[in-house]
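Continuing from the previous page of notes. For each protein in this section, the sequence appears first, followed by its structure tokens. Read the first protein now.
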Amino acid sequence: MSKGHGVSEYTHKQRQLDDYANQHNPNNQAYWDNLNNHSNQCNPNNDEYWHSRENDEDDE
């Protein structure tokens, strides 16, 4: 396995390995949930877009 790709069983617990695998498997709902969350946060017509940026405005 090359550096920078995936996760290692030497540095991660089994639960973390399973979560990583689920989020990168198109046959798993977690994969689609992650994509939907990302697209919602990138869409200014969605409430999640503004919710994800609330803290950024407070810092100014």
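Done with the first. The second protein uses the same format. Note its length before scrolling.
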Amino acid sequence: MGLIVVGMADLKVAKHPDILTTLGLGSCIGITLYDRVHKIGGLAHVMLPTYKGFEGQNIAKFADSAIIELLNQITRSGASRNSLVAKIAGGAHMFGKSQNSDIMKIGERNAKASLAILNQLRIPVQGNDTGGNHGRTIELDIDTGALKIKTVGLGEKYI
């Protein structure tokens, strides 16, 4: 069993018995796709909601382009499109009292964009732990599909 670390603006696919992890999700979103039949999973760590206007940059940085690329990579690795489920975590409000400014609500915008593209792609969202004002570290167990969420001061939970 190997622990595979997904960095910021990065995405990776793994098979059983590996575990995918990403650290320090603040306003960023961790998006997982998982096929329990074939025990293949993928994880993207996105920073911004949309690729539009940022063409030519790293597609893993943006929710819309990263999810599409993650879907392409996971199906090329043997996952069945019809067996996929998604889970998302992160999207915290990390910028103090500036909650009235839409531009500062990047975590909320990231979560909404992620859910919208997953809905558009007809991938059911099986778990969602977004919002709040705390950072998260997540681990996707490729054997079970469980997503462990570790939150500073709030402990661990699974979705």
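What the second structure shows: Helices lie at 63-76, 106-120. Residues 106-120 form the longest helix (15 residues). We return to this in next week's lecture.
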